[in-house]
């Protein structure tokens, strides 16, 4: 096992290729240990190079509605009425703190996503 820090995209691609080779390695074996270490290195490299930005609040609401198969009428109570749903989802009206609280409690959307 010749493991080194990932410093370039070429190192990252080589590590990903090796992970593909080791994917079915049994835990506790030398190959399984190598897979574990390489996975940790790749995760650290990707986190440093490509940090994930939190989702846009409106897109998060639309995504949750899609996940839960909710129509705009289903989420009307969280917005204070049907007309407000359209205004908020079309970005003509901002989310209020009370809307954010209701969306967080009712749909489970993380508060930090809604507060952006």
Question: Can you lay out the helices and strands and say which pair or pack?
Answer:
Layout: H1 9-22, H2 30-49, H3 57-67, H4 76-79, H5 82-89, H6 97-107, H7 111-114
Task: Tell me about this structure.
- 62% of the residues lie in helices and 0% in strands.
- With 116 residues, the protein is an all-alpha fold.
- The protein has 2 domains: 41 residues; 58 residues, Orthogonal Bundle (434 Repressor (Amino-terminal Domain)).
- The protein starts with 8 loop residues before the first helix and ends with a helix.
- The chain is elongated, with a radius of gyration of 22 Å.
Task: Briefly say what this structure is.
By secondary structure, the chain is mostly helical. The protein has 7 helices and no strands.
Output mean pLDDT: 92
**DSSP, total strands:** 0
Helix content: 55-70%
> What is the CATH architecture annotation of the largest domain?
Orthogonal Bundle
- What number of structural domains do the residues give? 2
Strand percent estimate: under 5%
Q: Give the CATH level 1 class of the largest domain.
A: Mainly Alpha
Count of separate DSSP helical elements: 7
Major sheet attributes: none
Q: Would you give the CATH topology of the largest domain?
A: 434 Repressor (Amino-terminal Domain)
Q: How far from one another are the termini?
A: 44 Å
| Helix vs. strand class | mainly alpha
